[in-house]
């Protein structure tokens, strides 16, 4: 049995030596080696041990340091040089890493180098990059890219294959093998290859719970999640829930798992339904829809005060007789051509209501004074939860008293608005 007071032993991981990239250089050039990419999974500090394991016959090349991160040597003869590196984390040596340097007496072959790309999504554009390719003589490079292999069914082609940064579209899942050869105008490089894997990563579906609604209390509310979608075209499953109901409500969904569900709004107030869809692999973010239930009816307000901003509740249905004497002190082109007799606001609760039989008449035969509504029209629908502000207007009576009648009917209920007025204006 392990003593609980004894701390558990920690397993040390061997470090990894990386000796840098192969190089082509000119004879007599100073070569810099680079072990800085070496690493240790345990983050232990590293020590370095280099060895020039092979060099051309007769070469006197020697490393400037066997323990530096970046030692150097002079490639004094044409031919191939191999340097080996071992790193140590204080406990374990790494495996041996090697780097090869080729020195040329005249033109040195360039080296093709590719920016590393390993995985992409199907349908994405792959951006290749050979700008890290080098030439020891400093000659300008030309590029030749080839797509050596591609997945079955793929029609991928490299676009601008003779540039440093061409592209192709990974149009199918699988592996793509890309090859680059660069030339300095005299010698081609050895081919550099890159294997890229394209995978079809699942994208989360999108839930759509439908549009917000205003309904009458006790109405059957229909919920519709059929507008939900999946970017990958996968079939969806549905999960509805009620997240908010008014106090005392016993509303229950008719189905929790169908695209279309519903419930009875048994109490006035706010209901919130939430929908989450799943494509077989991943849930969507929740989508919500808000339903406001209200007892049905019309609320009428008369408007008073500056700019008719104060609201005064009135009885409904509405009928009134009044005597109104008014005048306008405005003169000139900016003045109103009609006189405002009164202003009201209608609010629809719980359902839509339709204005019918809209009428504004002068009851006096032969009188030129004309009555009219402003802001209200025949067959106008006031949507549930919305309001409409309207005014009763008349042409000026020129100090004559006229009898006017303004009226309309609510189609759905038969309730009426009637305003009779004996009006006299300047």
Please provide a written account of the structure.
It contains no helices and 28 strands. The strands form eight sheets. A five-stranded antiparallel sheet has the order 20-19-22-26-24, with no helix packed on it. The chain has a five-stranded mixed sheet with strand order 21-28-27-23-25, with no helix packed on it. It starts with 22 loop residues before the first strand and ends with a strand. It has four domains: 23-104, Immunoglobulins (Immunoglobulin-like, Sandwich), CATH 2.60.40; 119-199, Immunoglobulin-like (Sandwich), CATH 2.60.40; 213-294, Immunoglobulin-like (Sandwich); 297-425, Sandwich (Immunoglobulin-like), CATH 2.60.40.10. It is an all-beta fold and 426 residues long.
Total discrete domains: 4
Percent helix: under 10%
Label the CATH architecture of the largest domain: Sandwich
CATH names the topology of the largest domain as Immunoglobulin-like
Please give the oligomerization state of what you see: single chain
CATH C-level class of the largest domain is Mainly Beta
Query: What does the radius of gyration come to?
Result: 43 Å
Helix run count: 0
- Overall residue-averaged pLDDT value: 93
User: What low-confidence regions span 5 or more consecutive residues with pLDDT below 50?
Assistant: none
Superfamily (CATH H level) name of the largest domain: Immunoglobulins
Number of strands: 28
Strand-pairing-aware structural class: mainly beta
Q: How many angstroms does the end-to-end distance come to? A: 110 Å
Relative strand content:
35-45%
How would a crystallographer describe the biggest sheet? 5 strands, antiparallel
Which strand order does the major sheet show? 20-19-22-26-24
Instruction: Sketch the topology as an H/E string, one letter per element.
Output: EEEEEEEEEEEEEEEEEEEEEEEEEEEE
Principal-axis shape equals elongated
């Amino acid at each position: 049995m392990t003593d609980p007071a004894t701390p558990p032993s920690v397993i040390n991981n061997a470090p990894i030596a990386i000796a840098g990239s192969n190089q082509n250089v000119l004879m007599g050039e100073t070569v810099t080696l680079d072990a800085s990419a070496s690493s240790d999974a345990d983050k232990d500090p590293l020590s370095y041990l280099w060895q020039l394991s092979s060099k051309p016959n007769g070469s006197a090349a020697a490393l400037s340091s066997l323990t530096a991160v970046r030692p150097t040597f002079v490639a004094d003869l044409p031919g191939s040089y191999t340097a080996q590196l071992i790193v140590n984390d204080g406990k374990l040596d790494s495996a041996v890493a090697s780097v090869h340097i080729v020195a040329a007496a005249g033109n040195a072959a360039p080296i093709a180098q590719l920016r590393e790309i390993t995985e992409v999504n199907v349908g994405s554009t792959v951006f290749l990059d050979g700008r890290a390719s080098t030439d020891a003589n400093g000659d300008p490079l030309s590029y030749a890219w080839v797509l050596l292999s591609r997945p079955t069914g793929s029609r991928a082609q490299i676009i601008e294959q003779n540039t440093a940064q061409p592209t192709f579209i990974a149009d199918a899942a699988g592996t793509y093998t890309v090859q680059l050869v660069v030339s300095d105008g005299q010698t081609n490089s050895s081919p550099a290859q890159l294997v890229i894997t394209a995978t079809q990563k699942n994208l989360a579906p999108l839930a759509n719970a439908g549009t917000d609604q205003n309904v009458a209390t006790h109405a059957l509310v229909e919920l519709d999640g059929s507008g939900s979608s999946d970017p990958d075209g996968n079939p969806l499953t549905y999960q509805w829930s009620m997240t908010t109901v008014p106090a005392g409500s016993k509303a229950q969904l008719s189905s929790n798992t169908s695209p279309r569900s519903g419930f009875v709004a048994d109490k006035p107030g706010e209901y919130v339904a939430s929908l989450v869809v799943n494509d077989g692999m991943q849930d969507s973010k929740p989508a919500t829809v808000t339903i406001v239930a209200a007892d049905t009816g019309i609320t009428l307000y008369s408007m008073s005060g500056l700019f008719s901003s104060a609201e005064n509740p009135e009885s409904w249905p509405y009928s009134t007789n009044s005597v109104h004497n008014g005048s306008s002190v405005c003169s000139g082109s900016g003045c109103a051509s009609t006189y405002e007799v009164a202003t009201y606001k209608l609010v629809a609760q719980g359902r839509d209501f339709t204005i019918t039989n809209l009428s504004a008449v002068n009851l006096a035969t032969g009188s030129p004074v004309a009555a009219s509504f402003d802001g209200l029209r025949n067959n106008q629908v006031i949507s549930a939860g919305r309001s409409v502000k309207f005014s009763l207007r008349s042409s000026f009576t020129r100090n004559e008293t006229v009898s006017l009648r303004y009226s309309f009917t609510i189609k759905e209920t038969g309730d009426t608005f009637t305003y009779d007025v004996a009006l006299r204006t300047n």
